[in-house]
Structure prediction request, 264 residues.
Amino acid sequence: MIGVFDSGLGGLSVLAAIARELPRADLLYLADTAHVPYGARHDEFIRGRVLAIGRHLVEDHGCSLLVVACNTATAAAVNELRQQHPGIAVVGVEPGVKPAAHSSITRRIAVLATEATARSERLARLIREHAGHVGVDIVACHGWATRVETLHLDGPEFMAEVRATVEPLLERGIDRLVLGCTHYSFLTPQLAPLAQGRAELVDVAAAVSRQVLRLAGNHACQEGSGQLALLATARPEHLHVALPALGLNWLAGRCVGPAQHATI
Ligand code: DGL
Prediction:
């Protein structure tokens, strides 16, 4: 069983990529909806949640591979999670700074992220190691993850905010726009038309799913019955509303039953 988790709905973008890559794997998705958004919280709190969720997925559900489908949680606690479960493969998600920096022609890229990821030492290190030769703008996008959670993705006010965030970056000459939060994959319909012809969106979901495939082979958890179990720490029923709203109705067909409430 592969356990995939996020603060809420954002990790569904990673889950969808994994489900496509490993159609027969048994998957469990956990949304920590009682505590979303993580991005505005202290690192210590996020670390506590990540370790508690990891323990729950391994000890109570028998997961043998964990995917931290959240940039914020990865930045705050993926090292500690690995230390806590030395026998388990743990895959984290980090903003695609490396592919963006290496493919940028204008030598200018931007990273959209939560407040916690934007200030993280992990992102600073990623930029130092892989993007020393390009200019990098980091933008903390307050409230965007909550927009996705509430499925309020349109509306002139939000569109104006997205445009006011992205337009100055494009004017400064960026040609890669890194989606540094898994929730922002679901803002592609809003972001892509603004960036069109000027910058490419960089989303790492597919790369993460290939990494999961590599590790799943070694951990013998890619052969199952292709079932998906859904868990949430609050409002589990919202997941069944979100799947079709986010264009993931096909995933609903893999669900073993209704989403369950998890007390963690
Ligand atoms: N989806 C998460 C990420 O990738 C966090 C969003 C949030 O809870 O603030 O960073």
About this structure: The chain has two domains: 2-93+205-261, 97-202. The chain has a mean pLDDT of 96.
